[in-house]
Every structure is written in C-alpha cells, then in structure tokens.
Amino acid sequence: MKRMKNALRIYVYLTISVLCFGLTSLLAAQASSTIFDNSHNDLQTRFDPGTDQVGDEVILAGTDRYLTSFSFEYWGVSLNPASFAGNVQARVEFYQNNGTPLFNGYTPPGTSFYDSGWFGGFGPTGGDTNRATINFSVGTDFPLGGLFMPVVSNMTWTVQFRNMGTGDSVGVDIYSPPTVGQDYPDYWQNDGTGWTLMTNSVPMDFAAVMQATVPEPSTLALSVCGGLGLLLVARRFRRKE
Asked: pLDDT per residue over 107-141, tens digit each?
C-alpha cells in the first residue's frame, strides 16, 4: 500500500511539472514580438543574384533576441511549367557583422550563428512564382526556446541559390523601407573570394520578417507553478509530523 501511495505521489508531481512546463511554454510563446518587418512597401523589383551568396544587413528593433520565426520572399521562373528544370536549392545564414578585413571601412559579415544548410522543395508554379515566402520556425528550424542571436542591433542575413537548370531563374524581392527596424540601401555579396558591398539604382532591401522573444517564463506561470510547488512541499512536511 505504501508503495502505491508513493507511486501516486510521483505521478502527481510529474503531472504538475508537465502542466507547468506547458503553461510556461505557451505563455512565453505568446510574448513574441516583431523585431524586423520589410514586407509592406513593394518596389516591384526582382533581384537575381545567380549563385552568389548575398546578404542584407539590417538593424533590429527592440531587445528580444531569441528568434522564433523568420521568413523571406523569393521569386522563381522556369521554362518548365511544373517545376524548376534543375534541382534548385537555397541556403540561409545569419551573421554577426564582425568580419575582417574591412571593405571600404565597413565591417562585413563574420561569425555565422545560423546555417540552414542546403534545402529544396520550392519552385515556380506554372512557370513563374511571384512573391512566395520561405518560412523558418521554432521546433523545425530553431530550438524550442528560440534561436539566440548574439547581436545588439546590426546583423546580416544571407541567401544563396544553386543547381539552376536551363531556363531557371530565382532570387529575392526588393521592398523598402521596412516598417519595423531599419535597413541599409546596399547589400553584401560573396562570390567565393570574399565579401564586397554592392549598390543598385533602388534600395537593395530584401523582403523579410523576423519575430523574437525573451525565453523567460511569465510571471503568471511562475506564480501558478510556484504556488503548486509550495503546496506540495507543505503537504509533504505535514505528513511527516
């Protein structure tokens, strides 16, 4: 009988722990805020980087730095009506702007703190995909608590495409100005020999949205779980008296 009571007590503790963890995670997830949004002011411009790695250096808003979601717009064109002719893939990376050497006095991308690796599964529909999005989110691309971004403000996100076949073109859409955060009018380009800063006739701001959070349990979650914990501890001491 004593063993059954102990087992029941352990089950109760575990159940409350799971409930508290779920409540904490739920309330923390609701605290996500938009720290960068360049998805509203469409310049009706397509940028084709070919196979070069290109990056948009942005200035993030707020102080939340655990990334919970990231999306960017791309376009794709192919002579093939159903899909790209080639096995087109993309790769996304996030960088701190702490690289060397400086380019004309500006600090290039340096330390990478996220690399998606090469991925496919996207492409043109009916030969032309216009303003489609690729989304990254918690649980599938980022850790459950969000991807920690070791930056205060400036960072560069990059995209690179490869394996384009005959008649395939793919790139990013240009929007400006952002409605949350800030953006520089130029862009970083790496053709495999190093980073250079490039300009164009329009502000080269890639369409993208970032949301982030602070991975701390809410006051309500801590109060509820803390109260339950104190109740169980008090009950346990009473049983020993």
From this structure: 999 999 999 999 999 988 777 888 899 999 999 99
Q: How far apart are the first and last CA of the chain?
A: 20
DSSP-based three-state secondary structure for 105: coil
Domain of 124, CATH number, reads: 2.60.120
Angle formed by the axes of helices 219-240 and 2-29, to 10°?
170
CA 42 to chain centre: 21
Regarding whether 38 and 27 lie in a shared domain, the answer is no
Tokens coding 195: 């980073």
H or E element that contains 14: helix 2-29
> Which residues, other chains included, contact 143 with Cβ-Cβ below 8 Å and sequence gap of 6+?
none
Asked if residue 128 and residue 198 are part of one domain, the reply reads yes
Nearest-5° Cα angle at 210, 209 to 216: 155
- Token representation of residue 225: 């779980």
